Amino acid sequence: MHLGIISFFKSFFLSFNKFYKSIKNIVGFRPSNLRLYRIALIHKSASIMSKDGYVINNERLEFLGDAILDAVITEHIYKKFPNKDEGFLTKLRSSIVNGEHLSYLSEKIGLNKHVVSNLSNSHFSKHLYEDVFESFIGAIFLDKGYETTKKFILKKIIKQHVNINKLAETDTNYKSKLVEWSQKDKKSVLFDTTLDESSINSNKALFISHIKIENEVLGEGFGSSKKEAEQNAAKKTLQNIGV
Predict the structure, then answer these.
(1) Which positions are catalytic?
(2) What pLDDT was estimated at residue 166?
(3) N or C: which end of the chain has fewer CB within 10 A?
């Protein structure tokens, strides 16, 4: 019995230390409240019920992180591009914080390796990485405050993984570019965009768009809105046809 208890605690602390080191490597500082980061990685599909009857998942942290991320990015590009108008800044911010890009960033820093989820749908699994990225930002904010969160976003995310100047120079209206190409080359283009049923009971809806050119599917994209899904699908299609 005594050996069993020792074995249990040894296993527990090994698991705790492994998770602690993983989070520390991602954020670049010593996390104070590790529980926040654990919750940030729990998707709604794997919710836990607390002793007090509260549902534990990352949705509230996601809500918070979304607002913090928007604030930091908005301030950063506002100062970086002092002569640009509101339309330019809005478009650039959208390019940085759109769902597909946040999913990419989530994977780049390794959050996808720690996500707790009971979902099997590959499309929605990708989509939830966006949610996890935002909830992780929320966890940092509650653990360390705004300035540390801002430093993490700018130093660990923007500086290392986002080429803002390139995004600023890129025409992100991929759907219009694809339509223009199809008209010029006299090709038929069909956007088939639907709501993923597995996302209906989720905090965010997920739309999936398939693009057919001459009845052949050449692009696929997802997003939290029909517009975003079609833009992402158009981007993939343009890449596939070499435009």
Answers:
(1) 66, 134
(2) 86
(3) N
